[in-house]
Amino acid sequence: MQPLKFSNIEIQAKKKRLDKGIDHLAKLTCKNDNHYYTPIRIIEQTAISFYVDDKKDKTTWVSIDKKRTINASIKALIKAYPLVLNNGPHSIYTLNEDDQKHRKANRLIKRKWKIHEVARWADGFFVARLSCSGTKGELDHNSQFVLYPALFQDYKPSVSESNRNIYTKHGQWNNVVKVNMHRLEIAFKSDSVWDSLGEILQNVEYGYDTENEAKVGFEYVVGKQDTQPTRVITTGKRNAKRQSGIDKTLPIKIIDHYYCHREEAWLFHSNERYYIMRMDAQSPGIIKLLNKGVSTGFINEEQSARQLLTNLTSKNQTISDSDSKYDACVEAWQEMIKRDVYQRYFITALSANWQIVEVAMLKGAPIAVKAICLPEVSNVLPVQFNTLPYRLLRIEDINEVEKVNEPVRSNDLPWYPKSSVKEFQSTLLSFLDDDTKESRKAVIDVLVYTCGTLKSKKINEAFNSTKHDKIIRIDGDACPLPLTHNKSRISFLYQQQRERLIERIERGALNKEQLVTFDEHVTNSQIFSKHLVDFGLSRGLLIQKHATEINTYLNKFRDDISVDLIHNVFKEALSPEDNQVAQYQNNADSQNNSIKSTKISNAGRKRIYKNDKERKRLWAREHRKKLKAKLLKSGIEPNKPGPTKVYKSAAEKQAAYRFRKKWEKKAKNSALLVFINNDNLLSDKCIDSVELLLPYYRTNSAGCGILFISTYKEKISISPLGLDLYKHDSSIQLSAAADYINVIDTVKNMKAIEVHFAGVCLSEQAKTLATLFKSDGISTSIINHCVCN
């Protein structure tokens, strides 16, 4: 290979080191315009670099004597070790990695520590809450710590062997570091040696951001111990890092609340901005602002929300207007619920029974596998929810690259294969060669990450459409167990556990209080969020008649303001009192309340009319008085009477009478929804027809009210159509998901039991509204645009 000739050598990066050396990144341009990158360190009289051997995947460090100039040193290094040209533009970070570690260690040692609380036990176990001054860099937000020893070790080590493992915070995402336990014990007893804590705790890096979190962690770890501490010491020292206070004037309104599988979440707004805060499932008692690096210890909903927003401001972080708008926030809320539901399905699949049905082969290699997942009953999901039993994985060409894909799945969340094509095929081949417990588990470990579906027909079609030359049948088909069996099964399991608990209590191994705790746990585990039920109904995971069997939490926030959750708007069902039809009492006389007849009646003489026309006229006058009094009582001002209409013929008068009686009957207890877009009311004939219906649906007549709806984002305007809004008519623009709530609430306030839709071509919004009304027990119908016929 001929030596390369470089036309230009450019130093792109320089990093000074603590050992007085300098790390460089050189960009070399050849005469053929090819570019190469070489990292080089100049320290004293030596030039150092490295290269990675692709075959051994090992870093090899090389060095030469430094030349007079940096360019000469680079050329000499390349001549001696040509493989250094294989490095990329990021190789400077590998070269400078050891210096960064030393700088980080120096920053950690320089931290100033304070001890705030120490709880001690007789066996030497302790829990301590500490704080330190901030460090510039990635660890600046880790200034609060809760230290306690790891289990299964001596809590009172000797001076010679005093390095022990300790935890730095509570929760599952915790790391163990080694510290000198003997020197730490001395620091607990005397604040005169606190200056040495920087050296003692130099390995302690990851903790909490705020003092509230550390206090919650301290109380949690102390409360988890079997016995109370023998001594609790409080130093009363101020925190080493200044904490931001709560802005009590900040307006907070909680809108909705959701119970995830392992934590809770709240949707709230403040100053016309919307936010989501969620409990940390891995660290009990810690609450975070969704998708933001802000957290605090949970106090209550409003106080925690204020603290989170205050911390957000103190860190000079802001949320963009687009992310804090109602629609964007509700979309994130929906996404969170969706992920929680399918995470529950994933958890049930981890302990499920799997049937590997068939494997499709192509040229001796597995190309697809079909399986059935039969989960055990548990309290992760309501037992009424349908399982997603049918699973399929196959190899497909995606963007001209072979990948393992799940072609039929019940959700649209991003899915990534947990194994490569090579691993997928080798796992299946090992299973086909020898069906053992280990090989079957390896296949299930690949299948468990699939989502699955309820539709076996689609799975079979996708499996059969896979290009193959052979199908190997293994376990055969199976079907999920019926709901009645699952209910009996879960009741049996709870009863079995309860009997075992009672047996241990009778033997004196447990306290009677644990039986009460178990019963409370069983009861609480069978209560779920209303959002979960709504999502199951919207995705076909739950049948309507089974949804009423699920116990749901009382959501005090959602009862005040309803939030659209699953792509369409879902509102809680009306209470039985709102849905039930008024029952009329039977006024038949009985022996107790019968009216006694008298010989002389005080009713007076019956009025004698001049003719039938006079009788009808007087009856109509009294009837109008009653209607007017009824309208005035309900706060509605009746229309003023107009001139009497003169008909051309008796036939026209009879037709008008029949039309009036027909629509008085239809409009009774009904509301009219008029879609007024120009693409709906296309003709004057249609406009005239709708105008004829308006008087019958208004509240001063037989109907419950009229609602004009525009699906355009522009301001609603019905004047070009020749229609006029009356005092009690309503108008709504249906341009966002939240507007569905306004439509449903408006109709319910009208106390209508039926809704009629008017318009030439009703859009998808009208179909969605009809579905939502039906789910709330309100019947719907479409009115022909030419009502005069």
Textual characterization of the structure:
It is a single chain. Among the domains are: 98 residues, no CATH class; 125 residues, no CATH class; 72 residues, no CATH class; 134 residues, Isochorismatase-like (Rossmann fold, 3-Layer(aba) Sandwich). About 6% of the residues have low confidence. The chain is of the alpha+beta class and 789 residues long. A six-stranded antiparallel beta sheet has the order 10-9-8-7-6-11. The chain has a five-stranded antiparallel beta sheet with strand order 1-2-3-4-5. The chain has a five-stranded antiparallel beta sheet with strand order 12-13-14-15-16, with helices on both faces. It contains 22 helices and 28 strands. The N and C termini lie far apart (94 Å). Helix 13 runs antiparallel to helix 14.
Essential attributes:
789 residues; alpha+beta; 6-stranded antiparallel β-sheet; 22 helices
List the helices and strands and how they pair.
Blueprint: E1 6-16, E2 22-30, E3 35-43, E4 46-53, E5 58-65, H1 70-80, H2 91-95, H3 97-109, E6 113-120, E7 126-132, E8 144-149, E9 163-167, E10 176-180, H4 181-189, H5 197-200, H6 211-224, E11 231-234, E12 253-259, E13 264-270, E14 273-279, E15 286-289, E16 295-297, H7 301-314, H8 321-324, H9 326-350, E17 353-362, E18 365-374, E19 390-398, E20 401-405, H10 421-433, H11 437-447, H12 456-465, E21 470-473, H13 483-506, H14 513-525, E22 527-528, H15 530-538, H16 544-547, E23 551-552, H17 576-579, H18 612-633, H19 650-667, E24 670-675, H20 684-697, E25 705-710, E26 730-733, H21 739-749, E27 754-758, H22 764-775, E28 779-783
Parallel strand pairs: 22-23, 24-25, 24-27, 25-26, 27-28
Antiparallel strand pairs: 1-2, 2-3, 3-4, 4-5, 6-7, 6-11, 7-8, 8-9, 9-10, 12-13, 13-14, 14-15, 15-16, 17-18, 17-21, 18-19, 19-20
Helix pairs in contact: 10-11, 13-14
